[in-house]
Amino acid sequence: MYDREYDDDLRNTNELVKRYENALQVNESTYFDENELEEIIDFYIENDKLDHAIKVADEGLIQYQFSTTFYQKKAEILLELNQLDEALENLEMAASFSPNETSIFLLKADAYTLKGEYSKAVDLVNAALEQADKDDKVDLYLELADVYEEWEKYQEVIEQLQKCLALDPDNEEALNRMWFSTELTERYEESIVFHAQLVDKYPYNSIAWFNLAHAYNGVDNFEKALEAFEFVIAIDEDYDLAYIDAGDLLYKDKQYEKAIEFYTDAIEKGSARKEIYYQIAKAYGHISKNVKAREYFKKCINIDPYYAKAFHKLGLNYLESNLPKNALSPLERAVKLDKRNYEYINSLAAAYFLNEEQEKALDCYFKMLEINEEDKRIYLNIISILYEQGRIGDAIETIDSCIPIFEDHDDLLYIKTAFLYELGKKNEMFDTLLKALEQNPGAHDQLFDLLPEMQDDHAVMALIESFL
């Protein structure tokens, strides 16, 4: 029934606008009453044809010069066009015919807020509050909250929203905005008191319970927060955000299996978003169910084939599962999607290394140096690969090139000592060792333990890895 009525209204509006535009085209004088002109204006505003809308408003002012409607409509359009002074002039004219009209006060407050004249806006709304009835006061308190929010006075925002909710406890806009301001001000204790009183009077107010849950979470009261989320779900079993946020709470508390249950419920309620699949995948990873984790990472990717961090986590899952070949494709995709992500490139380098594709691993490490040349671990990784390839001379050159970068480089000198020992360059080896001992004499024990075995590649690699 509703859809049919909506379609009929839309069809009638389209026919009205068509009749108006045809009259303009043939320069024909056709009568449109006040309601019809207002409907045409609204149509143009909704379709972002503000120049058309303002022309119709001007026609309305010609035909109905004592009506507040067209002054007000014109002011709305001028606000959209950021022509604030002209908008205020039209609102003054509207107020001269309807001095107590709340909607005019609201529009004037919007204009002053956009001008950055917040005190004027506040004074204006407070003046309107003195003569407003209960329903209008709700809108005016919300307007004051808007003004203070733009003014970045979030404590005052909360105060106005509380006044609004005192009159209209089920006001969704006020309830939803309360949490945003509470987060910014971190006034969790006050939020607990306010919302606890609210749900005590109105126990089936699901949004109030939702806000209360977040307030408890803000003071790290896990049990109370979870209990409040469960009340939300008991009141409104389709409140998908409550399932998600309860899942996040349990995930943070490392209750991964319970978190998965809440996330899965959220999906069943219609929140099949990539972020929820991602959280489920991570939770499965934490309880070592890597196959299930991969299943949900893939669901993320099916929703969004450009979701780089899901590709990255999928690749890491394969690495953790000792499936390095499978890791290459998702990790390559992650780097392709986010070419300068340091973590992604590092993971791909590790995968190449495990797949014995050292040259590709080296390329990755050199790309990482382009992003951050002061990460010593990258140099050590490069050095270890060069050593494994038998390119000891290149490894020594790499050490020499990066020693000036790091103030503490005794580890590099000890590794260089081991390389020189292996090459039989004893004089140079002793000079390098002396420099290392001058920097850090206590770090040489492991080197001396390994020197007799330095012809064994595993011994040299053990030394390098000890510094990684």
Structure, briefly:
By secondary structure, this protein is mainly α. It contains 27 helices and no strands.
Overview of the structural elements:
The protein is an all-alpha fold and 468 residues long. It folds into four domains: 1-99, Tetratricopeptide repeat domain (Serine Threonine Protein Phosphatase 5, Tetratricopeptide repeat, Alpha Horseshoe); 100-185, Tetratricopeptide repeat domain (Serine Threonine Protein Phosphatase 5, Tetratricopeptide repeat, Alpha Horseshoe), CATH 1.25.40; 306-372, Serine Threonine Protein Phosphatase 5, Tetratricopeptide repeat; 386-468, no CATH class. The chain is 78% helix and 0% strand. It is built from 27 helices and no strands. Helix 6 runs antiparallel to helix 7 (118-129). The longest helix is centred in the N-terminal third of the chain and has 24 residues, at 2-25. It is elongated and about 105 Å long. The model has no long low-confidence stretch (mean pLDDT 89).
